[in-house]
Specification:
The complex is a heterodimer of chains A (319) and B (291).
Chain A: H1 2-52, E1 56-58, E2 64-66, H2 70-77, H3 79-100, H4 102-110, H5 115-126, H6 133-143, H7 152-159, H8 176-181, H9 191-201, H10 205-213, H11 218-229, H12 231-247, H13 250-255, H14 267-277, H15 281-305, H16 309-318
Chain B: H1 16-52, H2 56-61, H3 73-113, H4 119-127, H5 134-147, H6 155-178, H7 182-190, H8 195-206, H9 208-223, H10 227-232, H11 241-251, H12 256-279, H13 282-290
Helix pairs in contact in B: 1-12, 3-6, 3-9, 3-11, 3-12, 6-9, 9-12, 11-12
The chains are: A mainly alpha (319), B mainly alpha (291).
């Protein structure tokens, strides 16, 4: 008799426990519903759709014909793709150096003696970030203006008596990539500078004090202490930059639209042109997926070598 | 700024004076280099502001220095040209911010504080989107907007922007919500509080700074976008600020004054947003989020 009641008690506890779990699941479901609705419609569906359609000749609407891997073969043999990849190689090198070079400036500021001057240089170097990137680009278009009277750079050369160097900077096939790489020179203002500086600030002061005691000069300290200790920040910036560069095309679109005569064409722009100016959605999708694969590999590398967001999740789960 | 005294306890040897002089020279060089770099950094923006106050004649005759009288009506012209696109951009960005904050905070609350089935799986499903480059989904999103009949509509910007901002927002907010002390929620649960009440009365009020950061980041990324509005919007009265500026640039071949004035005006909202961001001590937290 008494055993039975105990059993029933256990049973009802189990049931109420299950009911509570069910209720929790339902609550969580309702909390998650809006997010997953948005993600399903605007993120998961387009991704799957695009990957699927790499196998089709497709204009997005009426024409849809299965062609297997023909798009990939076309891409590999596309002379435009060859030009775009070669250009991307140059942009890659240049932009990479640009994004890493603020580390030296961060060191310069960090090595100042007075806190107040550090604060002011830091603030001032970051200040131009308030200007939207697109506006910065357009100001640089004004700097590269081809006319000798209104182009800032040409005017500057003129006032130094170097008229023979004046040129249409963005219309010269041999100069255009160099000119584009020089945009926003000296490339300090931006989040890499902030990340590097924050990294330097996190070096324990005992370590720095010890290096002074041991008679370390600034150069030795930078190479032996600072760089090894902020190497994760440097890697982070490098990998984020790689991911950004591979898909970048808005910048080129605004400055030169890939010109003159494809001299500044990049794969992202080729995708844009194929998909939205040429009705070759399937081919555009193929370029997109190829870029995604490249980015995916780089992202995996970034998780390998830096603290990943998944590490954070794991910590979250424990609590 | 070179006149600072350098306190060096380990150089108080007899030859302290020359060392001091050398240190001062080095310090002057140090500052000179930094100032030169600052000058280069600001040069384009100085030129833009200077030019925004000149007529075309003044620009030709006096390129490098301020010219008087200042042409303040350049700003009036620029404003008339782009005020409409500023309103459109504000609507789009504020809509996206509201949507991201509402959806992401609800989802993050569930991930951080409710123990439900397949929680890890669902969370990874959201986080995996951080690896999907925008350029991959561009074509698919465009076709959706066409199918939904949202072409040339601001909703065609707002809805994909919300979706695009969610993954990173959920990542930041989940981290923050799960760091809140459990005792607060325990006490509320004792008093019979529902999850929705705990979300609204405990989690939200305590997470204002991180919500501000997420909101400001969303605002900045949507405000500065160029490619997506270029695809979705057709008629000039719907243009966002970046499209409006591009159109203005195309139209005003030699009107550099009004054009630069337009650039200056376009930088004011982002300047306000970024200053707010710095004020909400976001700088440090922001960097922390990337590491």
């Amino acid at each position: 008799m008494s055993v039975q009641t105990a059993d029933a008690g256990l049973d009802s506890k189990l049931w109420s426990g299950r009911r509570r779990a069910l209720r929790r699941n339902l609550t969580a479901f309702l909390f998650l519903l809006p997010t997953f609705l948005f993600l399903a419609i605007f993120m998961y569906q387009p991704t799957v759709n695009v990957i699927y359609h790499t196998l089709f000749r497709w204009d997005g609407f009426t024409v849809e014909r299965y062609v297997g891997f023909k798009n990939f073969i076309t891409m590999v043999n596309d002379p435009n793709m060859h030009i775009a990849s070669r250009n991307l190689g140059w942009f890659f090198l240049g932009w990479m150096l640009q994004r890493i070079s603020p580390f030296l400036v961060a060191e310069l500021v960090f090595n100042l003696k007075r806190e107040r001057s550090k604060y002011w240089y830091r603030t001032l170097f970051v200040l131009p970030m308030v200007v939207p990137f697109l506006v910065t680009i357009m100001i640089w278009k004004f700097i590269y203006n081809p006319l000798p009277t209104t182009g800032v750079l040409n005017r500057m050369l003129g006032s130094f008596g170097l008229e023979q160097w004046q040129t249409a900077w963005l219309s010269e096939p041999s100069l255009v990539i160099l000119a584009l790489l020089f945009v926003s020179f000296p490339w300090i203002s931006g989040w890499p500078f902030m990340i590097f500086y924050a990294g330097l600030q996190q070096i324990p002061s005992e370590v720095l004090d010890a290096s002074v005691m041991d008679g370390c000069n600034v150069w030795q300290r930078m190479v032996r202490i600072d760089i090894p200790l902020v190497v994760t920040s440097i890697q982070l910036v490098a990998i984020q930059t790689m991911i950004g560069i591979i898909q970048e095309f808005a910048f080129v679109l605004i400055m030169t639209a890939g010109g003159p005569a494809k001299a500044s064409l990049v794969p992202g722009l080729l995708l844009f042109m194929a998909a939205f100016r040429g009705d070759q959605m399937g081919y555009g999708a193929t370029i997109g997926v190829t870029m995604f694969i490249a980015i995916f590999i780089l992202t995996l590398l970034s998780f390998r070598y830096t603290t990943s967001p998944f590490a954070r999740t794991r910590r979250t789960r424990e609590t | 700024m070179t006149g600072q005294t350098v306190d060096r306890p380990f150089t108080s040897s007899p030859d302290a004076a020359p060392v001091e002089l050398g240190a001062r020279f080095k310090s002057a060089l140090h500052h000179a280099l930094l100032l030169f770099l600052l000058l280069l950094t600001f040069f384009p923006f100085f030129i833009a502001i200077l030019t925004s106050l000149k007529s075309f004649q003044q620009l030709l005759s006096n390129f490098w220095l301020p010219a008087f009288p200042l042409q303040l009506h350049n700003y009036v012209m620029a404003w008339n040209e782009i005020y409409r696109s500023i309103i459109n951009s504000s609507l789009v960005s504020l809509g996206a911010v509201a949507g991201v904050l509402l959806c992401a905070s609800l989802a993050s609350y569930a991930f951080a504080r409710i123990d439900f089935a397949w929680r890890d799986g669902a969370y990874y499903l959201v986080l995996s989107l951080l690896m999907i480059p925008g350029v991959l989904t561009l074509i698919g999103r465009y076709l959706l907007i066409v199918q939904f009949g949202l072409m040339n509509s601001l909703w065609g910007l707002i809805l994909p922007y919300i979706a695009g901002g969610l993954a990173f927002a959920v990542f930041l907010l989940t981290g923050f919500f799960s760091d809140l002390p459990e005792e607060l929620f325990e006490a509320a649960r004792m008093d019979g509080g529902t999850e929705l009440q705990m979300y609204r009365l405990i989690a939200l009020p305590l997470s204002r700074p991180i919500m501000a950061i997420v909101g400001l980041l969303t605002f900045l990324s949507t405000w500065g976008d160029y490619v997506w509005p270029l695809l979705v919007l057709r008629s000039p009265e719907k243009f966002t600020l970046m499209l409006g500026l591009a159109k203005f640039t195309g139209n005003s071949q030699v009107m550099f004054g009004p054009l630069m004035a337009g650039y200056v005006i376009a930088s004011v909202p982002t300047a306000i947003i970024i200053i707010l961001m710095m004020r909400t001590f976001a700088g440090a937290a922001l960097v922390g989020a990337f590491k």
